[in-house]
Design a protein that fits this description.
The protein is of the alpha+beta class. It contains 11 helices and 16 strands. The chain is globular, with a radius of gyration of 24 Å.
Length: 364
């Protein structure tokens, strides 16, 4: 199952497909007893997708068989042992993907010529993803972080490894000591390669970067390259060969401190916007400004969800049973704001006070 949504992956998901491109969404649960019905619910929503394919006169028999086969293969790849808060299956002729999300989604089946991506986009923004680069003289590992965890990432050539050369005993005798691994030219070249590889990843998927390693390793990486200069240094050795749990323990205090700093910055920005009459609050008001591309900073409380319907140009509260209800309006707003260049920040519940769970600073 997929977890990490890079800009390139999102662009590929949004690419038009031959009809039908099927999006299947269902909520999942991490713990008992809530997860007891997840497997049944998943089978039922996939069965509903097949029923809609069968009933759609625009879908030929051959194409229907193709997409049904992709749905069955996707269903076989789902492992609910590691379920998070939502699951999305994409299936189209000749392809399928399964995404696990750390954010709830409504149960839904959509047949279109593109996949429904707004729930993925919103979940990715919620997780506040970051990179961790763990450096040693013989291995450089890349970790994908977010949502309270890290996992090793195998992308862009990472992990980079090399065999350390034997140190020259004659050189040791001449210098009278054992040379540092981080002073020899081979190590400089190795870390220069790691820096270039990380720079390419940051260009394609920009995120905050934490760099772990011995102080000598951090100093050399900063000397030979550029990425460490803008990253947060974590002087902790051994993590290039470490476990995800060890890496998370090392960076967690710095990630938490950065989140507090970001919350303070968001609060100040919203207060300034309020004073300049460039402030919007509440789902209806923020949604209207988002449609016009006017939001430059969107703040959303982490667990804020609401169901609405369009009442002639304004959004009003609705029940999930209403035929025209929109259960994922918050995700719609998040995706729209990101598409129009806004900065999106998720903040702790209650942080927005009387703003109604969602607020924005406007461009004009």
């Amino acid at each position: 199952m997929e977890h990490s949504l890079s800009p390139a992956a999102l662009a590929e998901l949004r690419r038009p497909r031959p009809y039908p491109a099927v999006s299947v969404l269902t909520p999942t649960h991490r713990r008992e007893p809530d997860n007891a019905q997840d497997r049944v619910r998943l089978r039922n929503v996939v069965a509903e997708a097949k029923r809609q394919l069968e009933a759609d006169p625009a879908v030929t028999r051959e194409r229907r068989a193709d997409v049904v086969r992709e749905l069955d293969e996707a269903l076989g790849e789902v492992d609910l042992t590691y379920a998070e808060d939502g699951l999305v299956i994409f299936a189209a002729p000749g392809e399928h993907q399964v995404w696990s999300l750390a954010r709830p989604v409504p149960e839904r089946v959509v047949l279109s010529d593109t996949f429904l991506t707004r729930n993925l986009v919103s979940a990715q923004a919620t997780e506040r993803p970051f990179w961790v680069l763990s450096v040693s003289a013989d291995r450089v590992a890349l970790w994908n972080g977010g949502g309270g965890r890290v996992a090793e990432e195998h992308v862009g050539g990472f992990p980079l490894t090399r065999r350390e050369r034997d140190f020259d005993p004659e050189r040791q005798e001449r210098q009278g000591d054992t040379p540092s691994s981080f002073r020899d030219e081979d190590t400089r070249h190795f870390l220069r390669e790691a820096d270039a590889a990380m720079a390419r990843i940051l260009r394609d998927s920009p995120r905050p970067l934490y760099v772990t390693g011995e102080r000598a390793a951090l100093s050399l990486l900063e000397e030979v390259g550029t990425v460490a200069r803008d990253g947060v240094h974590v002087p902790h050795g051994g993590l290039a060969h470490g476990s995800p749990e060890a890496v998370w323990r090392a960076v967690r205090p710095l990630v938490a401190a950065e989140e507090l700093k970001n919350l303070d910055a968001v609060t100040r920005e919203l207060e300034a916007a309020r004073g300049q009459r460039e402030f919007a609050a509440g789902v209806d008001e923020v949604w209207r400004h988002a449609q016009e591309g006017r939001v430059r900073l969107l703040a959303v409380e982490e667990n804020f969800r609401t169901t609405v319907r369009d009442d002639g140009g304004h959004l009003v509260p609705a029940g999930s049973e209403d035929l025209d209800s929109r259960e994922d309006i918050v995700d719609e707003i998040v995706e729209r704001c990101l598409d129009t260049g806004a900065e999106v920040r998720f903040v702790p519940d209650g942080a927005l006070g009387d703003a109604g769970g969602i607020a924005g600073a406007l461009r004009y």
